[in-house]
Amino acid sequence: MSNSFDLIVIGAGPGGYVAAIKAAQLGMNVACVEKRGALGGTCLNVGCIPSKALLESSERFEETLHHAAEHGIKTGKVSLDLKTMMKRKDEVVDGLTKGIEGLFKKNKVEYIKGTATISGANEVTVGKTKYNAKNILIATGSDVMPLPGVDIDEKQIVSSTGALELDNVPGKMVVVGGGVIGLELGSVWRRLGAEVEVIEFLDRIVPGMDAETCKQFHRILEKQGISFRLGTKVTGAKKSKTGVELTVEPAAGGKAEKIKADIVLVSIGRKPYTDKLGLDKVGIKTDDRGRIPVNHHFQTSVPSIYAIGDVIAGPMLAHKAEEEGVAAVEIMAGQAGHINYDAIPGVIYTWPELASVGKTEEQLKESGVKYVSSKFPFMANSRGRAIGQTDGFVKILADKETDEVYGVHIVGPDAGTLIAEAVIALEYGASSEDIARTCHAHPSLNEAVKEAALGAFAKPIHI
Asked: If you ran DSSP here, which 8-state letter would residue 135 be given?
């Protein structure tokens, strides 16, 4: 193996491995260093993929248990085989990690196993071996954000990693944090039989997404059996053989109280993984949140060292990291890599799903832009009625005068898929009329997007 490369990528998560493959396709001699021992990073190994596997399995379990009879399907006694469910999840992860190894071999990307430190502007050290590179790309992702006073042991008090490995369904799970990870994993264990309570410091769940859409989302989750304590902070945790006792109090101040749980899931966010990389040795400083400042070409203060994904500013999303990885190596190759950060979707894969792209109504109000807001409910959508999925709506925000679409927010069935149409609309500067005059197949869930678009510039047909 050579010790000299055009590019060394540190981290083999979605951003890192995609960047490495793309760089190789552009003719570079590339190495990718990963310390985990398996490719795919947090997302593939202990994040996006295993959680989606469990979400799918738990949805099927609940559908069979509670809704099959509505479709005239009679079943015998339905029971949960959690061991088999977990085995399937692990097999999905294993297959995908091996798939990335295959892509590395196909594209001649050198896979170096071990922990990397940056020992120079053009040098990376792994173990006792030093490697030279024309450019270095930091794609080390993020780690669990700790909660003061609550020590994670991955047994009784777990992070998302531990919540994906439980060997039995807890009687009660308390989820600390009302964001994407907490709501998705809370939904999994609620469907499998746990009592789930979500504690959120702010006065709403999923902060940062469109408030009206999130309010509807909150109602739907409550109807499914998840309870919420908003405006509440957790100040301590005491473990015993019988469970965990949390101390909570109002975020604005007030009397403390105790809450008991079998399992506590801490999901208050993630922090950039920039420790122990050796950044200080090459003069790279991080900001107050541990992120690495970069310019529009993803270069750090050291021109030969680039950074993407969770370690730089912006939403911590796998697909955002992928796009940045591609753009960064295209720029290294002398091409015009570019990302439209206003057209990056966010999705929560509960059921129904919550998906969003572009500006929220709150952002438009704050900016003083004159806009129109149009909603169309899935209750009025033919496909939604046929499949028995009628919760939620599509919401489109468009400029009052030019009709340009500013934002699209969906809570409903397959929202994560439906949002793709909206992403394309924003990418190409489409108007709501452009969407509405595009023929949509009937009957399809996508027709709800068309109807919401109709309502933004004219009137919907079906309500």
From this structure: E
Question: How do strand 243-250 and strand 232-240 relate by DSSP bridges?
Answer: antiparallel
Rounded to whole angstroms, how far apart are CA atoms 182 and 82?
20
Any idea which residues carry the catalytic annotation? 442
The dihedral over CA atoms of 127, 133, 137, 143, expressed in degrees to the nearest 10, equals: 0
Residue 198 inside a domain? The answer is yes
128, 254 contact by CB (below 8 A): no
Give the residue from 268, 290, 308 where a domain finishes: 268
Q: 407 in a domain, yes or no?
A: yes
Say how far apart CA 318 and CA 14 lie, in whole Å.
6
Per-residue pLDDT, averaged over 76-88, amounts to: 97
What are the residue ranges of helices labelled H in 306-431? 318-332, 361-367, 382-387, 415-427
Beta carbons within 10 angstroms of residue 195's beta carbon: 16
**Residue 219 and residue 362: Cα distance in Å, rounded?**
20
Output the CA–CA distances (angstroms, integers) from residue 288 to 122, 271, 401, in the order listed: 26, 11, 41
Q: Edge-to-edge strand order for the sheet containing 243-250?
A: 232-240, 243-250, 257-261
Is the pLDDT reported for residue 225 higher than 90? yes
Nearest to 351 by CA among 200, 183, 176, 209: 183
CA 272/CA 284 separation, integer angstroms: 14
Side chain identity at residue 364, one-letter code: L
Judge if pTM exceeds 0.85. Answer: yes
The two structure tokens encoding residue 282: 């090459």
Residue 402: how many CA atoms within 13 Å on its side-chain side? 8
377, containing H or E segment: strand 371-377
Same domain, 290 and 415: no
pLDDT digits (tens, 9 = 90+) for 85-131: 999 999 999 999 999 999 999 999 999 999 999 999 999 999 999 99
Whole-angstrom distance, CA of residue 227 vs CA of residue 235 = 20
Query: Which residues of 211-326 form beta strands (DSSP E)?
Result: 227-229, 232-240, 243-250, 257-261, 263-266, 270-272, 305-307
Q: What is the DSSP letter of 420?
A: H
Which positions ≥6 away from 387 have C-beta within 8 Å? 413
DSSP state of 431: B
Q: Is 363 domain-assigned? A: yes
CATH assignment of the domain containing 119: 3.50.50.60
Of 206, 177, 144, the residue nearest 346 (C-alpha):
206
Beta-strand relationship, 305-307 and 270-272: unpaired
User: Domain range spanning residue 162?
Assistant: 157-268
